[in-house]
Amino acid sequence: MEKTVYERSLDLHKEHKGKVAIVSKVPIKTKEDLTLAYTPGVAEPCRAIHKDPSLVYEYTHKGNTVAVVSDGTAVLGLGDIGPAAAMPVMEGKCVLFKAFAGIDAWPICIDTKDPDEIVMIVKALAPTFGAVNLEDISAPRCFEIEERLQNIGIPVMHDDQHGTMIVINAALRNALPLVGKKLSDVKVVVSGAGAAGVAVAKLLAGAGPYKGIVKETAKDVILCDTKGAIYTGRKEHMNPSKEELASFTNKNRSAGTLAEVLKGADIFIGLSGPGIVTSEMVKTMAPKAIVFAMANPVPEIMPDEAKKGGAAIIGTGRSDFPNQINNVLGYPGIFRGALDARAKRITPSMKLAAIEALASCVTNPSPEKVIPSPLEEGVAQKVAEAVKKAALKSQ
Question: Which of 143, 165, 219, 226 could bridge across to 199 with cysteines, CB 3.0–4.6 Å?
Fold first, then answer.
């Protein structure tokens, strides 16, 4: 019997003992090599950096290195599996940084869930890395952690929030004209009020850091958690993050289940769990509906079921279906641009530039292609150039 993709992946990881390794940029074969790379020669770049700290970018790997930091509390669709079990995902992310943007990244899986400790650890790592990618840290802690790390001198971005948001919005830029709709006319329902769902809602509603800087916002955005729609006045299962969300979403204070609020919606964005949407639910959506079901590895609704329900454009987070809406299309170029600009943070304008660049990578959008493939050449480079330009403009 042919092995499943999961069995083949297990074999690959076992054979190679993981996916990353350190490779020397310089040879160590002669006494001269040792003299220059280590003692006594290495003392001179140390003295130079001590005299002028900015030279660390000239004499070390810092300007091309990203730390991928996780506590393992929100890994893929697997949930809180801990830092050790999160390592294969973080290694994979590092491999993709290298493959798509030439960035040397390293997994840092830390054994604490305490926001204070995570902030302390990342701050302590800042001298070694050019940027930090926070990954798979559960909400709402991830919001506080990212916010507290914005002034450490290097870019820190929680990719589950912003990378996902950027790719979704790039796909929507190309999808909406295909169904003859404008963002300002549509009702959007987002399933999942975690890191990605919050970031998506803020941009679509023009709230938070995007207030006053986005050209167009959705007519309405409704977020659903496991208890149903979030709205101002809901009493149960609320927290400060959801209270904030309620203040700028769900204008009519619609209550009810996901199935109930999905009626008449133009767009469904799934950032939650497997199999929670049916073809019957899609049938209740507005004509020419857009369905982005991105739970991994099993989406909220499989593409054939969404099509049966009448969806005009369908995307998932998977590579085995058309329209793979995955943050691998975003973060390599975003961090490449930030590193090349020596940016101190990744700003809203840099994120908006990434959206425009990514959307423009599809020259002739169709229902089967509203976003480029992660394997297409030049995607990360185009995003990087746009992000770098936006960063330099704001400096």
Answer: 165
